């Protein structure tokens, strides 16, 4: 056993004389606290950016934040555990904790994202330092931390960065040592369970972890020992999620209760064919299980997966990483036959590949692929360390890496400068006026709207804008909901164009009384007459 371990260590240290990518600050980067310093520095910077400039939640990811996570977080503080159809309680639990101490849930959401982004960079640096080299680890962390998608979701209130953090933590504790550690394995199981409870596609770890332990033998163990360690991880994972699973079983009849199969059905049957609202209000009611979705058209299911394989990979290379980095990823893929990673490096890439495969089931979004940024980055930067470049005159891997870092930072700055304050400022204007001039502190009162932002900022309970097409039906449905307030703005006008006259308070029907409004862009808050 000792000889086997020594041989492997020598083989894996063969790259120590490779081309240096980052020749500066080597002693500092080797310091045991270097990863923590990087994380804290990033935290300070992104907190300043987020809390200074991201003052209104956007109409994209933060819709879910206001509509689901904030109410769930408030319920948790009251001792009520709501079973949401698409996500577990992991993020609302963390949001509730931060919200309790910070006071404002939106601010708390920004802080949670900034903290988990910084922790993600810490885990990434520490893992890559062990698997590759400290200079590659530092460059990949910079490429990750400056990536426009990573930066965007480091200040966006939502589950994305929290899921990213727990997944990175699971990999860190799995790869922390070349020798097996039961403590590290249990912590990895806990991190994996928290990732699953944050976003249910975290279930991929049930395949990924046994693959890296058994298939890649990352701890250099005999087969029986590998099987035992994989089983220990799986037992730990199920024990950690079992309280929630049992609760779902008692309340909903399923240990793994969720309706994410509806997202798969949208990808297969609705994307590009029917509108978003039509699908979720009408078409989605046709599907009741994952099996039904798959067997409704097995050939279409398979073709969708195959199509997404190429589409998602293309989008990852061009949109997530940028073509300038994507070029090196492609070069690395071509050169794999000669420049093969060692088994621990290969296990890291396999973990990323399995995460990528889970995402093929649903529509593409750069934020879903954030975990893959350092995976792709490691693959690309490893290309710059190939021995073959030594024969190229004036080759300088550091300069190429530096150009990629500056390019990534510049692209990210320009993108986020335009998007960080893209939220509907008119809603904040209306809410501020309402809170200052209307004496109504009752958060149980209902406001009907298409997006939940106005409900959050006025501290009211949101009810979804009815899927109707006439004023008579709208009045009937709104009054059925026992609504006190009704909001109509630009987004409502886009999704419910039949009622565009409501953008002008002078055209309000008799059952709606205008309270306040904005002109540019137009939006109106109404009181519902009883």
Characteristics of this structure?
530 residues; mainly alpha; 2 domains; five-stranded mixed β-sheet; 24 helices; 5 strands; 5% strand; globular
How would you characterize this protein structure?
The chain has a five-stranded mixed beta sheet with strand order 2-1-3-5-4. Mean pLDDT is 90; it is low at 1-18. 63% of the residues lie in helices and 5% in strands. The chain is mainly alpha-helical. Helix 22 links the parallel strand 1 (446-449) and strand 2 (461-464).
Structural class: mainly alpha
- The shape, in one word, is globular
Distance between the termini: 81 Å
**Rounded mean pLDDT score:** 90
The proportion of residues forming helix, as a percent range, comes to: 55-70%
Strand segment count: 5
The quaternary state of the protein chains shown equals single chain
Low-pLDDT ranges = 1-18
Give a brief description.
It contains 24 helices and five strands. It has helices spanning 2-12, 26-30, 34-53, 61-77, 90-102, 105-131, 134-146, 148-155, 160-175, 182-198, 205-215, 223-252, 261-270, 276-281, 290-296, 298-320, 323-334, 343-359, 372-383, 397-419, 425-437, 453-458, 471-480, 490-495; strands at residues 446-449, 461-464, 485-488, 512-519, 522-528.
Chain-wise SSE layout:
Layout lengths: L1 H11 L13 H5 L3 H20 L7 H17 L12 H13 L2 H27 L2 H13 L1 H8 L4 H16 L6 H17 L6 H11 L7 H30 L8 H10 L5 H6 L8 H7 L1 H23 L2 H12 L8 H17 L12 H12 L13 H23 L5 H13 L8 E4 L3 H6 L2 E4 L6 H10 L4 E4 L1 H6 L16 E8 L2 E7 L2
Parallel strand pairs: 1-2, 1-3
Antiparallel strand pairs: 3-5, 4-5
